[in-house]
Amino acid sequence: MPKSTKSKRRAHLTGSCQCGKIHFSVESETPVPFMFCFCSICRKTGGAAFGSNIMGIRATLKIAKGKRALRSYHARIREPRKATVVSKAERWFCVACGAHLYLTDDRWPDGVWPNVSAIDTPLPEPKRPISIMTRYKPSWVPDWMLAHGETHPRYPKQSIAAWHEQEGWPVTVRP
């Protein structure tokens, strides 16, 4: 049975890059940053031990400042013994400071995935975080970082929207 939805509703989120050239906003029904990704794309584009995205509603994405400073990048997906593949997703960055802001993917045209490090609005704390793509976790990342909840060597079966619904968040937009 889902938890109460009394305080769980669509959130208006604002975000920006580190240098302040770009400011954006987006509405999100799934604002809890519960999924920590250890893939090399998230780690290297975010400059951290892991990345974390939330999901927003693409139709509500507004660039309030700095549209000319936005650039996109298609990451390279590299796996042992396989040919490198160019990702269809676009990762959007600030051209001045390099901050990763959000991801779009036309295969899921209703969604946008803001990088939580770019969000300025306080976000809800995840009660049960999940670590994904742990097979790509570098050896220097201590195992205690994975001890907080479920771990998945690749992607979990449960989507960001399904996780939020299970936690009592009303979700109407699915990419």
Explain how this protein is built.
This protein is mainly β and 175 residues long. It has one domain (11-166): Metal Binding Protein, Guanine Nucleotide Exchange Factor, Chain A, CATH 2.170.150. Helix content is 8%, strand content 27%. It has 2 helices and 13 strands. A 5-stranded antiparallel sheet has the order 4-11-10-9-6, with no helix packed on it. A 3-stranded antiparallel sheet has the order 1-2-5, with no helix packed on it. The radius of gyration is 16 Å and the shape is globular. The model is unreliable at 1-5 (pLDDT under 50).
Please name the CATH architecture. Answer: Beta Complex
State the major sheet: 5 strands, antiparallel
Strand ordering within the main sheet: 4-11-10-9-6
Q: What is the string of SSEs from the N terminus onward?
A: EEEHEEEEEEEEEEH
Overall radius of gyration: 16 Å
User: What is the averaged pLDDT score?
Assistant: 91
Number of domains: 1
- What is the terminal-to-terminal distance? 24 Å
Note the overall shape. globular
In CATH terms, what is the fold-level topology?
Answer: Metal Binding Protein, Guanine Nucleotide Exchange Factor, Chain A
Properties at a glance:
single chain, about 25% strand, about 180 residues, Metal Binding Protein, Guanine Nucleotide Exchange Factor, Chain A, 2 helices, 5-stranded antiparallel sheet, disordered N terminus, mainly beta, 3-stranded antiparallel sheet
Summarize the structure.
8% of the residues lie in helices and 27% in strands. The protein is mainly beta.
